Amino acid sequence: MANSYFRFKHFRVEQAHCAMKVCTDACILGASANLGAAPRILDVGTGTGLLALMAAQRNPTARIEAVEIDAAAAAQALQNAHGSPWAGRIGVYAGSLAQFAATQPAPYQHILCNPPFFRYSLRSPDAARTTARHTAPDTLTFAELAAFAAQHLTADGRLTVLLPPPEMQVFELEANRTGLYPTTRLVVRHRPGSKALRHLTEFGFVAQPTANYELAIHAADSEEYSAEFRSLMRDFYLAF
Asked: Beta-strand (E) ranges in 151-219?
């Protein structure tokens, strides 16, 4: 059974009421996204509020907003935000992305999303976990996310998305249709040379050659964390 909380160096994430718990790939997204000095950041499908909290730690002046369709998870994300050092800079909206769009939010310089992606696998009997992990007409679709980003990013804004490689190919097609194109891609592997687990892809409005990078979580032939992973997570993980 997953722990009811996950403690980082500068904040704690309560997760008892969230279907999707803190996980390594989401932490990589939060630590590696190129947030720069973006004054406004949006976390779509925030779950526990993890990405919003990591963004607030990394960017000390940004206003971060987070959207979550599951009411229990949204309440937990709000609790986590209020218990953090950045309570005044994080807002949580409980509702769908379409409902949030209807509030006519101001444009963002960066949008982060770890979207549902199990498009073809069996659905979980846990309805909340299904909503968090599976694309479906009544939840967040790739087309909806891409269209929202295209409409609510500034001209120089960026969208960063975390997906398995096959799903990322599908998402890139949807993004291209809205005028968003991949600018950088971080390929995440268990260890050097192993199968790619996730792609963290940044999108912008200018079509250009994609810069590709690699991150191995573990060192070759070892269960030890790699030096690159330790360096990336040093400001967050207690163990580092």
From this structure: 153-163, 181-189, 196-204, 211-216
Distance CA(28)–CA(33), nearest Å, equals 8
Is residue 136 a contact partner of residue 108, using CB atoms and an 8 Å limit?
Answer: no
Alpha helices in the chain (DSSP H): 24-32, 50-58, 71-82, 97-101, 127-133, 142-152, 165-177, 227-233
Strand 181-189 and strand 211-216: the pairing is parallel
Which residues partner with 169 through β-bridges? none
Cα–Cα distance for residue pair 88/65, rounded to 1 Å:
11
pLDDT tens track, the chain, 240 positions: 467 999 999 999 999 999 889 999 999 999 999 998 899 999 999 999 999 999 999 999 999 999 999 999 999 999 999 999 999 999 999 999 999 999 999 999 999 999 986 444 334 444 444 444 444 444 789 999 999 999 999 999 999 999 999 999 999 999 999 999 999 999 999 999 999 999 999 999 999 999 999 999 999 988 899 999 999 999 999 999
The residue type at 148: F
Cα-Cα-Cα-Cα dihedral of 179, 151, 139, 163, to 10°?
40
Q: What pTM did the predictor assign?
A: 0.90
- Degrees (nearest 5) of the Cα angle 47, 156, 211? 80
The set of residues, in sequence order, having a beta carbon less than 8 Å from that of 211 and lying 6+ positions away, is 183, 184, 185
Nearest residue to 224 (alpha-carbon basis) of 240, 204, 203:
240
Q: How far apart are CA 99 and CA 46, in angstroms?
A: 15
Nearest-angstrom CA–CA distance, 27 and 146: 22
